[in-house]
Amino acid sequence: MKFISTRGGVAPQTFEQVVLTGMAPDGGLFVPESLPGFGADEMASWAGLPYTELAFRVMSPFVGDSVPGPELKRIIEASYRDFRHRAIAPLVLSGHNEWILELFHGPTLAFKDFALQFLGHLLDHILEKRGQKVVVMGATSGDTGSAAIEGCRRCQNIDIFILHPHNRVSEVQRRQMTTVAADNIHNIALEGNFDDCQNLVKASFADQSFLPEGRQLVAVNSINWARIMAQIVYYFWAALAVGGPHRPVSFSVPTGNFGDIFAGYLAHRMGLPVRQLIIATNANDILHRCISTNDHSRHQLIHSLSPSMDIMVSSNFERLLFDLYGRDGAAIAALMDDFRATGQLKLEPGALAGARALFDSYRVDDAGTVARIRDEYQASEYLLDPHTAIGVEAGRRCRSDSATPLVCLATAHPAKFPDAVKKAGYPSDPPLPHHMADLFQRQERFSVLADDIGTVQGFIAANIS
Ligand SMILES: *Cc1c(COP(=O)(O)O)cnc(C)c1O
To answer: Cα separation of 56 and 59, whole Å?
Structure first.
């Protein structure tokens, strides 16, 4: 299978090239040239498969010959071995014909483990085969950094450097990154804010001359195709468990960069009957404004109780736009140039109608988030994390009919966000799972560096193994 850029300016690339590159050289994002499709009988025959076997069936067509079948199986098995639930992604009944899909049983207690555990193992395999070593560099304000570190901790061919803003990430999140003891893991606490971290990473990708001969940077942020691909699996998994593919299913997804819900869209395009995909946003509501009033304009960032959804612009939305505009790369390039210049984007009527045929959206602010956590706990003693609470609230508000099963994606464990949970009346810090109960006693390792590109790049060059 070949991959093309949403901006049309790159020759088709192989799976391997796409995984190693991240963003396309023309500034666009990679998408498959054509999508594989599954028939209803084939999908029905998958009901009851273990998660890893289902993952193999869903992902194989994308990977093609790049990774031999038995090797892909091994990578998938290794990727989900450290999940602390036998089902890997259990479904909990949470209301009438309504389920919560718990995606937080991985090593860092957030759904990002599904993609980043897989990406780490996949990268290591590709690099081993090529006899190559790379440097993973990224900036984080929370969940991505720890999930990336856990994903790379056993990789022989990767050094990973994650920048976080010094004293500006929550203690649980910082400790999840800084207590992983492995020689290839390097945490940098930058004396600056998250934007400063991101700017340093961007500048380093643009000019990689600070790296030793033969090394290159690899991005593991949410635009990496392999991350999207791994997330498609759990949409099939959940649908098969609640009556699909013989009846359609709806999903509500706490959304930031649009990576998670875009995987649901792909599952639908690959044949899975889906009635609604509900985009749940916090006060950073660019996508809700886009779907509801065709106002995709950039606003100031608002810091919310659901920090992993605090974004101004959702990078993966471009992938959907590409399809909505008939896969016209030139049109997307013009649209995105215009958006960068003006901060505004209005969809053409046909594109907007196309989006609305499948997507609904809802915005939940901090007060609504806290209220949902409180009500849910009072009604059932089920404790939602603030991101999941937004998904549940949006799902109930937007659901078109109660005959269609609704699956709300639970993207994080509540123990990661004690402040929000306590605001909702929970009496103490919610307990961490047992395997992490000693997180606050573990030894931390990180380097505090000045917000200076020479300092940071010098540190990286000096610490590559
Ligand atoms: C990253 C994240 C999200 C947002 O996912 P996107 O793919 O960026 O839309 C939602 N909830 C949690 C807990 C996250 O870590």
So the answer is: 5
Task: Tell me which residue of 155, 164, 213 sits closest to 185, measured CA to CA.
Answer: 155
pLDDT at residue 195 in the model: 85
pLDDT value of position 63: 95
Place of tokens 């736009």: 321
Q: 330 to each of 3, 11, 168, how far by Cα in Å? A: 16, 14, 40
Q: Please indicate, yes or no, if residue 302 is contained in any of the structural domains.
A: yes
Name 253's bridge partners: 279
73 in active site: no
**How many angstroms is it from 11 CA to the middle of ligand 1?**
31
Q: CATH number for the domain including 272?
A: 3.40.50.1100
Position 261, amino acid: I
Q: Whole domain around residue 312: which residue ranges?
A: 77-107+225-423
- Smallest CA-to-CA distance from 449 within 182, 146, 196, 166 is with 166
- Using only C-alpha atoms, the chain has a radius of gyration, in whole angstroms, of 21
Ligand 1 atom at shortest distance from the alpha carbon of 142: 15
For the chain, what is the domain count? Answer: 1
Residue 27 included in any domain? no
pLDDT in tens, 78-113: 999 999 999 999 999 999 999 999 999 999 999 999
Per-residue pLDDT tens over the stretch 148-172: 999 999 999 999 999 999 998 888 8
pLDDT (average), residues 259-280: 98
Apex 324 CA angle, 319 and 326, nearest 5: 100
What is the pTM for the complete model shown? Answer: 0.96
Contact 118, 75 (CB under 8 A): yes
Question: Which listed residue (2, 73, 112, 422) is catalytic?
Answer: 112
Query: What is the distance in A from the centroid of ligand 1 to the CA of 29?
Result: 18
Average pLDDT score over residue span 36-61: 97
307 alpha carbon – ligand 1 mean position (Å) = 9
Structure-token pair, residue 249: 């299913």
The Cα 188–Cα 293 span in angstroms is 41
Q: Is residue 338 part of a domain?
A: yes
d(CA 178, CA 187): 6
pLDDT higher than 90, residue 21? no
Instruction: Look at residue 381 and tell me if it is in a domain.
Output: yes
